[in-house]
Amino acid sequence: LFLFLFFFLRVRRPPRPTLERSSAATDVYKRQVVYVDPAWGRVEGIGAVKAEVMGEAMEGLDWRFPTDHYMIDGDTVLIKWRQVIPGADGTDYEQSGFSHLIYAGDGKFRYNEDQLNMAHVIEDLGASGWRPPAGMKMAMPPTSPNRDFSIPDRS
């Protein structure tokens, strides 16, 4: 699990996001993954995760997600990371985030819950003057996301 986690951290939260990152990042999840995102809410199934959370929503995004710490306990992984938004004046705006993952074996996770203070994100978006890069398709999260963060039974 340790070596797989190292791979996961390099693919999912590399220094510079790219289109390839979105595709490679979803390869680490089971087909029936449950992904809980602070903006998008509960998303079930790899197809939905690709389409809603890590597909167009991430393509071309110029934010960074450096990892600060991680802990492994059995099949549970906790990751402390930062979301870094580049400001229009070159200043970085950072928010603190945590991910809770459940490893399913065979190089795949079955559950991912990301926690991030969205009020802080919105404040920093306004203060930073950040705008989507040219050509980025800016997808908006649902107005009433499913906030169920329960972990599904093993299957």
Largest sheet: 6 strands, mixed
Q: What does the oligomeric state look like here?
A: single chain
Alpha carbon gyration radius: 15 Å
Strand order of the largest sheet: 2-1-6-5-4-3
Instruction: Give me the secondary-structure category.
Output: alpha+beta
Write the element-wise H/E pattern from the N-terminal end onward: HHEEHEEEEH
Q: What number is the mean pLDDT?
A: 85
Q: Could you say which overall geometry the principal axes of the C-alpha atoms support?
A: globular
How large is the count of helical segments? 4
Termini separation: 19 Å
Low-pLDDT runs: 14-21
* Beta fraction: 25-35%
Helix fraction?
10-25%
Task: Please report the total strand number as a whole number.
Answer: 6
Provide a concise account of the structure shown.
The protein is an alpha+beta fold. The chain has helices spanning 2-12, 19-26, 46-53, 118-128, and strands at 29-37, 41-44, 67-73, 76-86, 92-105, 108-116. The two termini are 19 Å apart.
